[in-house]
Design a protein that fits this description.
Number of strands: 13
CATH class of the largest domain: Alpha Beta
Largest sheet: 7 strands, parallel
Radius of gyration: 22 Å
Helix content: 25-40%
CATH topology of the largest domain: Rossmann fold
CATH architecture of the largest domain: 3-Layer(aba) Sandwich
Length: 350
């Protein structure tokens, strides 16, 4: 389905559009007056033709911006990729650099949204709220199988101490009196001064009762949580991922759940989520056997990439995205533009 709104300035093809995307983008566009053209399908090489003659596209986390797709877009006249998300692991940056395309993102919208969802998952998983909710609706008020533990005094390991990781650390430290360990390639002395202890990954794995992932996906940390990492963890550890699905080797996680090395698992992201999340598949037979296996465990909670999904975050995402478009259209410097030279230099560059 295709919709159009606004007048003048820049034509922007918005992919993976849901009703809430349109609502917040149109509200933010009231002053910018770009021509927003909304498409429900994901962006792939097969749907890139929908953006023909439009100089900007606005993709989301599960749109596929590989070399083939970017080449087609560039041939059609696309010059700007205005991501309405923080992550850009779905963009072939080398191809974008060679095609002289500009890539902008939303590096920060509402870190509290993701951090608070992380805490909600920890509490729900620990106190088995998901199971209790279903039982009570069926008239079953038995408490067997619902035993939890006090978060007070637990050790929480946070991998990635950007904005979101710091907020999670602050909540568990100040709200639950947890001990906080952290790992980051670039430790923050100010965060450490608040009582957080930076350690290496083996030590974090070995000492943490709860491990929460808050780092971007890079080639270096693909499947950061694999069988070897799980072997280092405490028996019965709680693992939470609200960051990127491919940080976790899903088969290794399933093996860890079966052996009870992993006692609790909460996921808001999944490595193969592109064909699942953000869609209503309630009348469909899901073909992903690995995902379906995860759903069979009583100590697993999965939400469909909704950690970011608050009014505050969606408003901020829409406003920042359109500001990025305006900056590009008017030739202004934009702090949210990814410096592709930091990743790949275009061919022929010295």
């Amino acid at each position: 389905m295709r919709f159009a709104s606004g007048n003048v300035t820049m034509k922007v093809s918005v992919f993976s559009t849901k009703p809430y995307d349109r609502h917040f983008l149109e509200a933010a566009n009231a002053d910018a007056s770009h021509e927003l053209i909304f498409f429900e399908p994901r962006l792939t090489c097969d749907t890139a033709v929908l953006a023909a003659s439009n100089s900007a596209i606005c993709p989301f986390v599960n749109d596929k911006l590989d070399r083939e797709t970017l080449t087609l877009l560039a041939q059609q006249g696309t010059r700007l990729i205005a991501l309405r998300c923080a992550g850009f692991n779905n963009v072939d940056l080398a191809a974008a650099a060679e095609l002289e395309m500009t890539v902008a993102r939303v590096p920060a919208y509402s870190p509290h949204a993701v951090a608070e969802h992380t805490i909600a998952l920890i509490l729900s998983l620990n106190r088995k709220i998901h199971r209790a909710y279903s039982r009570v609706r069926e008239g079953n008020f038995a408490l067997n199988g619902l035993l939890g533990f006090d978060l007070n005094g637990c050790t929480v390991g946070i991998i990635g101490t950007g904005r979101i990781g710091k907020i999670v650390g602050k909540i568990v430290q100040q709200g639950f009196d947890c001990n906080v360990l952290a790992y980051d390639l670039y430790p923050d002395p100010k965060f450490e001064a608040q009582g957080v202890k930076y350690v290496d990954l083996p030590k974090l794995f070995a000492m943490s009762d709860i491990i929460s992932l808050h780092c971007p996906l890079t080639p270096d940390n693909y499947h950061l949580i694999d069988a070897a990492a799980i072997d280092m963890m405490k028996p019965g550890v709680m693992l939470v991922n609200t960051s990127r699905g491919a940080l976790i080797d899903t088969q290794a996680i399933i093996d860890g759940l079966k052996s009870r090395k992993i006692g609790y698992l909460a996921l808001d992201v999944y490595e193969q989520e592109a064909d699942l999340f953000f869609e209503d598949l309630s009348d469909s037979v899901i073909q992903d056997d690995v995902f379906e296996r995860l759903l069979t465990f009583p100590n697993v909670i999965i939400t469909g990439h909704q950690a970011f999904f608050t009014q505050n975050a969606l408003q901020s995402i829409a406003e920042t995205t359109l500001n990025n478009v305006s900056d590009f259209e008017q030739g202004r410097s934009c702090n949210n533009t990814i410096n592709l030279e930091d990743y790949f230099a275009p061919k022929g560059a010295g």
